[in-house]
Amino acid sequence: MRLVVLGAGESGVGAAYLAQKQGYDVFVSDFGPIADKYKKQLEDWNISFEEKQHTEDLILNAVEVIKSPGIPDKAPIIKKIREKGIPVISEIEFAGRYCSAKIIGITGSNGKTTTSSLTYHILKNGGLNVGLAGNIGKSFAYQVATENFDLYVLELSSFMLDDMFKFKVDIAVLLNITPDHLDRYDYKLENYAASKFRVTQNQTAADYFIYCADDPETIKGMADRKFDAQLLPFSIETKIEPGAYLENDNIVINTNQEHFTMSIQELALQGKHNIYNSMASGIVARVLELREGTIKESMGNFKAIEHRLEFVANISGIRFINDSKATNVNSTWYALESMSSEVVLILGGVDKGNDYGMLKDLVKQKVRSIVCLGKDNKRIHDAFEDDVHVIVNTFSAQEAAQVAFHLAEKGDTVLLSPACASFDLFKNYEDRGNQFKAAVREL
């Protein structure tokens, strides 16, 4: 049986390896160049591949196509595959067929990497045999082929969920729904929301759906959908049982009539958005009946993720924070919301149709000046010219760090939280964050 994998990144190469192990005749095709490390893996495994092109004769004879999450449905090759009636699935859907482990699936516009990493950290510390995959770390398919975990924490993007059909998540977590990637969803928020709710598809009464009761789009989306799973909401605005809520600065988690309580001061992750993330992870841990002491200890000693509100240095009384992973406006809103000092904000990159309006109040309250880091900064100037005294254009991480340092005063925070994708000047958000950190260390 011939299986074609489109895209030779982490997920594609992992899927190809699993498919070969399962006896498929596998071919990998990437329209761009393939990174050396992945090319070497494909060669070592004797998997045939092509790069910088899609040869239709070698693709349209597949019984099934595994598509990388980054390839949009409107790509010409996808249209041709669909016209021929060849099924297109995600790497997660494919790997799920060969995996009997329990699955915790975490999605949301913001916070999913943090929540997935925190959940994994708690479960691993609790002695569970657990893997971490999806949008993070080694691909799910590669781990299914090479490991033997009892359960997985999967960070699921909307693009992954779009091509998942029979796959079932035992414990589904939906953190929030805010406008992101709308260019892939006909600029309709309800289409993007529908994609996020796919995390609950195929769930039964034995499963759990954990969601934020304070998120208006989630609540709106739930109104006309039916859920078979047991519902466990979390809120910092109202008392909810069963579920999680905030009482006198304590997180209270109540599942199965047992109360877990922890002061928000003890959490390793600070800021309002991280109370939500910690609640979601805590509910998962309680559903899996982990000991209270283990959960508290893990929530207290968790190390934040690289490029997500990551402390870089303190130079002459000025803090530098790398939040390069903030590729949408909502992430930047969260970052600003958690700042307790005056901010010099580094913004910009590839704008995905951003609405900067939601940042206006926080920018007026907290931002001293804005440093733009991108090729086209006109929309940032238009959005904030009345709210800050200085907006400066820069075209490299080094220049942005230097300019921000000069604009900042003692006690300020220089915050790289771009609200945009990075592809105009950098390879990806990691590259942007790493260049920024290197530039800060040279100051």
From TrEMBL:
Cited InterPro entries: Mur-like_cat_sf (IPR036565), Mur_ligase_C (IPR004101), Mur_ligase_C_dom_sf (IPR036615), Mur_ligase_cen (IPR013221), MurD (IPR005762)
Keywords: ATP-binding, Cell cycle, Cell division, Cell shape, Cell wall biogenesis/degradation, Cytoplasm, Ligase, Nucleotide-binding, Peptidoglycan synthesis
Residues holding ATP: 108-114
Protein's organism: Mucilaginibacter ginsenosidivorax
HAMAP family from the UniProt entry: MurD
Catalytic activity from the UniProt record: UDP-N-acetyl-alpha-D-muramoyl-L-alanine + D-glutamate + ATP = UDP-N-acetyl-alpha-D-muramoyl-L-alanyl-D-glutamate + ADP + phosphate + H(+)
Gene Ontology terms: cellular component: cytoplasm
Protein name (database record): UDP-N-acetylmuramoylalanine--D-glutamate ligase
Family in the record: Belongs to the MurCDEF family.
Subcellular location per the Swiss-Prot or TrEMBL entry: Cytoplasm
Pfam families named in the record: Mur_ligase_C (PF02875), Mur_ligase_M (PF08245), MurD_N (PF21377)
GO molecular function, one term: UDP-N-acetylmuramoylalanine-D-glutamate ligase activity
Described purpose of this protein according to its UniProt entry: Cell wall formation. Catalyzes the addition of glutamate to the nucleotide precursor UDP-N-acetylmuramoyl-L-alanine (UMA).
Biological process terms in GO annotation: cell division; cell wall organization; peptidoglycan biosynthetic process; regulation of cell shape
Domain Mur ligase central span(s) in chain numbering: 106-284
Record domain Mur ligase C-terminal: where: 307-420
Enzyme class label: ligase
Pathway: Cell wall biogenesis; peptidoglycan biosynthesis
Domain of life: Bacteria
EC number: 6.3.2.9
